């Protein structure tokens, strides 16, 4: 499933001045010039973030905090740049003076640091630093993903003072959001031109991704459970862009500069202080998550295309071999960058459960103006090299329960559904699995033969094809016609419209929201990943 565009760093492996694998030269200095507009002030309270490189500090809970990565490190993929050594900062609990920020900081610091893993070069036979008794398995998110458009539930009690101030500013800038976005990037690129290579040459597809992610996080500063998980995933995912700890203060400075300009009617020192506290907490959670992840996994994986199966004129099933073990869970997705469109990433779900041979498969549909999807469908061939980001997503099977699985897949959304079925089969479960495979025409049922073969092999599996142009009912209506579903967990994958209508249909038939799992396009946009 082709998801919104994101970007990677120009780190010598993706475009820029040379070839795809050509390192770039160091930029020289970071100018301190102000943009021509005087209204944007530089908030002095945002301090450089990151852990000191010489002596990592240990939080009170005993968690080992890794040092910030060095410039030009292969594990972060960051471009070589000259920076002053980052100033040592207090732990999140010390600088998070508001109750909401302190809660977020405390929740983010739990858990031991994983074992070290050094990324190996492509086609290298160097063994992983992780021993055989310590498999690198991505953590499964315990909470299901909320429905699109559903606001995160607020904690008991009233909103914190900082949250009230933050939301007041957001309400003020909402009518001029596009201007805020443009001004934010203008400040960022004028004040910090060395950050420009982290973004694609054409900003039309990127414009609001970063700002939307920051504003989403700030808006939910009181909702610790949701926010920490969101920010940790965001921090891990941003490693592949070359994002480093020293980049965060610049982004925070320009964010507050843009907000102070367009929320001038309500902006004051108290509001600015609330935003500084919120952003400091947000950035530290992301930095800490990235630092922990750096010890256990590379920032990205190289992968060689081994098979390219064109199922229809615009749908291909692509199988790749990563350069080193790639741990993931059935139902998750990853981000993909091609050599033809460097610094542009799109998300695709894994089309199978983890395989013993380590190969990964994706179903890709070429969409109009889809740079990455068209390249993968019409240009990629065996032997080509692509890059993969880390696995992500919460649409995974809970094997501790015996609930049935109601799986709804539309178009190439059948890919993760197939992976879930294989996962249930490999665990030896005999729980009921009901699959609804939706398509506009029978031509779009490109993987129906595979699903029917799985049905023949597993008596607990039922597969139903719902074709819009032939059926008297749409996919949500078909879900309502069967059932009951009160003892099922629901999984949805497909276009955003199908997910929205599917969630409504599932709620109508009595499945609670906390048992409906999906990774929608809107959430990927909000995450900016």
From TrEMBL:
Keyword Lipoprotein: no
Cofactor needs: FAD; heme b
Name of this chain's protein: nitric oxide dioxygenase
Biased composition (Polar residues): 68-78
Highest taxon of the lineage: Bacteria
Ranges where the record places region Disordered: 1-97, 110-157
Ranges of residues in domain Globin: 157-291
Keywords in alphabetical order: 2Fe-2S, Iron, Iron-sulfur, Metal-binding, NAD, NADP
CDD domains for this protein: Mb-like_oxidoreductase, O2ase_reductase_like
Record's catalysed reaction(s): 2 nitric oxide + NADPH + 2 O2 = 2 nitrate + NADP(+) + H(+); 2 nitric oxide + NADH + 2 O2 = 2 nitrate + NAD(+) + H(+)
Provenance organism: Streptomyces purpurascens
Enzyme class: oxidoreductase
